[in-house]
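REQUEST FORM: STRUCTURE PREDICTION
Request ID: SP-0412
Submitted by: Lab K.M.
Chain count: 1
Length (residues): 202
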Amino acid sequence: MQKSELDNANPTILSVSQLPSRRATGGTARHGPDSKYDYAALASLSSDTSSWPSDDDIDGDHGDDHDGEMWEAPVDEQEIYDLISTISDPEHPNTLGELNVVRLPDIRVTPAGQRSNLTTVLVDLTPTVNHCSLATVIGLAVRWRLEQALPPSYRVDVRMKDGSHAQDDQVNKQLRDKERVAAALENDTLRNVVDKMLETCA
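STATUS: Completed
RESULT:
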């Protein structure tokens, strides 16, 4: 695509040092559930194996084992950000994190509770321009990335942030429609674009 054809030929780009990270925050309190691998990370700092979880901890005491599935620890907002911020933009040689399309404060993780047995992940996206013609594709890539990375006990909701896109209602309606999303991913051309965007993900 030629530069003159880009929706935003000169987007603002954040440096890697400006992107949110667990290391940069110095272990400050998180807004979502506990980290997925805290017990393993902390235990690896010491040679004393008494702090490691026992087989009983993993197999029984910390969660139900349904049909042989391993217990799944919850994920927080930073971990969701880490999963999707490295997705490549379809127009620019930058990631969604670098372009500030994905922002940590716009990610919310709601643990399962009395009303639902699903943990909900809500991601608000901010296109670089409010007339971005690829907003739906970006939303589709984010949703696909999360649905592939997270266990079935998570429900993913990806949308354009209110007022960030001239047609945010229309884009959000498409991203909420499971049948449209499934049909879009069956389109070879669109699927190739999404797969290309996800090549930069770890």
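NOTES: The chain has two domains: 23-70, 74-198.
Reviewed by: T.R.
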